[in-house]
Amino acid sequence: MNTSGDRLKTLLHECNLSPSDFAAQRKVTPQHVNNWFKRGVPLARLEEIAELLCVRSKWLRTGEGPKHPTPLPRLDAAPRKPGIEPTDSALLAAHTSSDIQLPFYSMQSRQLKPIADHYLRLPARALDALGVDPRQALCLSMPTSNMSPLLPRGSTLAIDCGLTRIVEGECYALLHNGRLRINSLSQQANGSLRLHSHNSDEHPTETYSPAQLKSQKLSILGWVFWWGHLRASRPA
Predict the structure, then answer these.
(1) What's the rounded Cα separation, in Å, for the pair 183 and 206?
(2) Closest to 225 measured CA to CA, from 149, 165, 173
(3) Which end of the chain, C or N, has fewer beta carbons within 10 A?
């Protein structure tokens, strides 16, 4: 890969995102994206696209340095078992010997596949209180910034795949043409589904008719019942 256009094309393939879908998401024409492939990503859009695709803008522009942002260092010195994600203090206060390890999944080749030895540990009593069957629960990383600042990109999400019934205003994980999406939902009387984003200025509400839901393979994976993330930086 010699140009930022080459790297962009590879990133879209890794994210299972077609050039036309990417163009629609960025509110440009497919020809714009093809031009970026050939001529490189415009400098004015480097930061935006790098943030969207979870890579460093310098790497996208030049191919030099680390590809991904450096994770924030942990502030606690206590060792933890590899593959176990930290949870919040309220849930840890309810910790018992019957903790549940929920597996992490990622989108690979338009399918959800487990990530080996990567789990989130939650107390069984917390899941019981929410009515979550751990056999139908899994964890994902927030794929985009459409729900910021409520759910920043990269946040850890726990999903109850046993709850796909629409409760207006609740957040759900969706599968849309082989892509993972996170939105709050509402349903119209005619069966159309409305997808709402917390960052509504950049991501306006989308409406899909029953026919579009079927043709675009848009389905509800499950209810987002837990999330957590570290702040990107300390306040000044």
Answers:
(1) 10
(2) 173
(3) C
| CA 136 – CA 159 distance, rounded (Å) | 8
Please count the other Cβ atoms lying within 10 Å of the Cβ belonging to residue 31. 10
Predicted confidence (pLDDT) per residue in 147-174, tens digit:
988 888 888 999 999 999 999 889 999 9
Q: CATH 2.10.109.10 in the chain, residues?
A: 84-228
CATH of 84-228, one of 2.10.109.10, 2.40.160.20, 3.40.50.920, 3.40.50.10790: 2.10.109.10
CATH 1.10.260.40 in the chain: give the residue spans.
4-62
How confident is the model at residue 1, as a pLDDT? 53
Q: Which two tokens stand for residue 199?
A: 């960052």
pLDDT score, position 110: 85
Please give the CATH number for the structural domain made up of 4-62: 1.10.260.40
SS (H, E, C) 85-123: ECCCHHHHHCCCCCEEEEEEEEEECCEEEEEEEEEEEEE
Give residue 201's identity as a one-letter amino acid code.
D
Q: What does pTM read for this prediction? A: 0.59
